Structures are given as C-alpha cells and as structure tokens.
Amino acid sequence: GRIHVPGKGLSRSALLYHHSVPTWLKLTSDNVKEQIYKLTKKGLTPPQIVRFVTGIRILKSKGLASDLPEDLYHLIKKAVAVQKHLERSRKDKDAKFLLILIESRIHRLARYYKTKRVLPPSWKYEPSTEAALVSVK
C-alpha cells in the first residue's frame, strides 16, 4: 500500500488522456533532441516532455538535467509550501502533522537515492536552505 495512507489502493488500468499523436513525433532523432532542449528551457519537466524517449539521458548529456530527482524536488516543494503556511497559522496541528509526514518521505527517498548514488552521500535535507532552492508561489 501507499505510505502514510490507511487504504490499500486499487489496481486497475487507466484510460489514456491524449489520443492524438504529438506534432514532433514524426521528426528525426536530431530534431526530437532539439525539441527536448527547447521544451526544457521553457520549464517543462522530463515526464511532461518525453515518456518513451530517454529524456533524462539526453538532458544530462547536454547539461540541462536538474541536480535533484524530480520526485524529491516536488516533495521538497510541497514541504516548503506547508512551512510557509505554518508561518502564517502556527496553530494548525493538521499542517504540522502533514509536514512531519512529508519530511519523513523526503528522508526515505533521499536515503534511497544516496544508495543508488544519484545524490551525493553528504546531501542532507535542511528546510531553511531548501526554501531558497525551491521557489513556491
């Protein structure tokens, strides 16, 4: 089951959302790479750009890939948003508990990425420094 959730989850197939083919699919491999570079510079994430092509590897070879893995980045972004909320309303006990759960997910995921050598062994989650890295609107 999912972490920090009482339910077990249901396994079933999901319907596709987009049935149309992307316009850049019929291009050559060099044109696809150029399109990936353009979309990355616009701010799209690799899963939004390419799911079936090796988007991350192409971006790493060009030097455009981010230092943090994407799932860890989004967890940190969520934690920073909850911290910002707690600065305004300090007595929100549910948000305090939610922050504890989010931070435990961050630590667990960071431990996994350290063993897989995606993150350096000295990397540590510190809420004060991560708030500067992740800009929350």
CATH superfamily of the largest domain: S15/NS1, RNA-binding
Q: What name does the CATH topology of the largest domain carry?
A: Helix Hairpins
The CATH architecture classification of the largest domain is: Orthogonal Bundle
* Percentage beta strand: under 5%
What best-fitting shape do the alpha-carbon axes yield?
A: globular
Taken together, the total number of domains comes to 2
Main sheet specs:
none
Compute the average pLDDT: 82
**Count of extended strands:** 0
Structure description:
With 137 residues, the protein is mostly helical. It folds into 2 domains: 34 residues, no CATH class; 66 residues, Helix Hairpins. It contains 6 helices and no strands. Helix 1 crosses helix 3 and helix 4 packs antiparallel against helix 5. The model has no long low-confidence stretch (mean pLDDT 82). Keywords: Ribonucleoprotein, Ribosomal protein. This is Small ribosomal subunit protein uS15. Belongs to the universal ribosomal protein uS15 family. InterPro entries: Ribosomal_uS15, Ribosomal_uS15_arc_euk, Ribosomal_uS15_N, uS15_NS1_RNA-bd_sf.
Which labels suit this protein?
single chain, 137 residues, mainly alpha, Helix Hairpins, 6 helices, 55% helix
Give the gist of this structure:
Belongs to the universal ribosomal protein uS15 family. With 137 residues, the protein is mostly helical.
